Amino acid sequence: MRGIPGWFPRLLDIGLWLVVCAPPVSVALGPDGRDAVVAAAGVPLLGVAVAFRRRRPLAALAVPVALSLMTDAELPAPAYWGALALFGWLAGSRAGTARPALWFFGGVATAGLVLCAVVSSDLWAWPTMLLTLLIAVVLPWLLGRCRRQYADLTAAGWRLAERMEHEQQAVADRTRIRERARIAGDMHDSLGHELTLIALQAGVLEVDPALDARQQAAVGELRAAAGAATERLREIIGVLRADDEPAPRAPSEESPEAVVERARASGVEVTLERSGATDDLAPMVALAAHRVLQEALTNAAKHAPGAPVRARVARDGTTLRLTVVNGPAPAAGRLAGVASGGSGLIGLDERVRLAGGTLSADPTDDGGFAVTAELPAAGAAPRAADTPRPTTSARELELARRQVRRRLTQTVVAPLAVLAGILLLMLPLGLISSSLSVLDRDVYDGLGVGEPRGDVESRLPQYTRDGPPDGAPAVPRGQDCAYYSTRLMSDDGYRVCFADGRLASKAVVGEDD
């Protein structure tokens, strides 16, 4: 990380290892030998988890989960609750997607079911274990996900802010260009007026009888030059006007044949087809058609040098259709260093739109490119501009909003779904546990007080009840008791108590006693 010394992450890892190892070490120093062995083995394993917490957060989370279940198959050991919560939070804050974590939690739930069924023989411990893991692991993981979401949204916000700054800069640049265009329009108006006055005064002098023929001819040339300069100035400055200013109305005097001939002179293999009269086109239509033909030939020469080009100008009644199609570029490819920014086609589309027509520019099936413009021959009002597409900033903002809604839904729905699942599992687990803990009456009657515990347990069911029946008396002092069902979902039960390795007492206890 920028600005953080290289030794700081390692120091942070050591501190984190000491924190998560403190509860297991306190257990290892206690009197329970089995837990002490597991806790002592957990110290180096937790160190491995700390080392992999950045690259493999779910693998790091698996270490305290496994150690907790090894310590107590029925319930995650309290010594590892802190490690479970911490590594769960780290896994949530570093996970890109939730799917791997969901598979992980499903695997842990399945492993817990197997441990409860095989090791502890108590299926009722499984919902309790799931509830504990929900609180100790899943909730911290969800909080980590929220933290990751906040970080992602913050980063996206900064990116959007930077993009908006660039867009604002672009708007400012366009505003300056627009103002310069208005200044150019003002120059056209004022300078054109002065040139018109010069031409008018020259026209007056041209018919002045005080001047001889040579002087009148010179003044006539001056008047013609001033008129031509006025017209040329109007054509040049007119294209720089702002969008809300009147566009130039006069077309170029260059014919399509002249444009094609100029392209041939530059090395473009181009053919021209014409059909229908094009002499009476509206000024804006003629200017747009000339511009489309010129730009399409330029693009063909630039992006597909050496490829044949076919241009067609056809008028069908009130519609002028102009098509320029170039073939695929030869093996030599496009000219080196030539890039396409698309601004030429954007300008063409705007010019055609202002003339009331439509423009399409698409690749052809053989790898070439086709530009087609359809224009009203008599001219028409400018076509409405296409609806602007959502900007990149708007799309990213909408995506961020959807992610926020989805992750918030996950944060709320996931714990509720787990709780609902636990509640739904309790009924079938109760039936299964009750059926597997039923002690046959004949077997119960055959148990004799004083028999060795091993002989008695060999005849008892593998599973016990989830607890004593309601109304059962207190356990006799110094005895270790287990409870079995008299029948499926019974309210009473058999109590079998041991002391000193032998059966000390037995009784039927509960509400039905």
Textual characterization of the structure:
This protein is an alpha+beta fold and 513 residues long. The chain has 13 helices and 8 strands. It has helices at 7-28, 33-51, 57-71, 81-94, 99-118, 125-206, 213-238, 256-265, 283-303, 343-354, 392-436, 441-446, 453-459, and strands at 270-275, 309-316, 319-326, 358-363, 369-376, 480-485, 492-499, 502-510. The strands form 2 sheets. A 5-stranded mixed β-sheet has the order 1-2-3-5-4, covered by helices on one side. It has a 3-stranded antiparallel β-sheet with strand order 6-7-8, with helices on one face. Strand 6 and strand 7 form a beta hairpin. The longest helix is centred in the N-terminal third of the chain and has 82 residues, at 125-206. The model is unreliable at 242-251 and 333-342 (pLDDT under 50).
> How many β-strand runs?
8
Estimate the helix proportion, in percent: 55-70%
Could you name the ranges where pLDDT drops below 50 across 5 or more consecutive residues?
242-251, 333-342
End-to-end separation in angstroms reads 71 Å
Write down the oligomeric state. single chain
User: How much strand content do the residues show?
Assistant: 5-15%
Largest sheet properties: 5 strands, mixed
Secondary structure class reads alpha+beta
Q: What is the radius of gyration?
A: 45 Å
**Helix-strand string:** HHHHHHHHEHEEHEEHHHEEE
- Would you tell me the overall average pLDDT? 75
Shape: rod-shaped
Q: How many helical stretches?
A: 13
Q: Please state how the strands of the largest beta sheet are arranged side by side.
A: 1-2-3-5-4
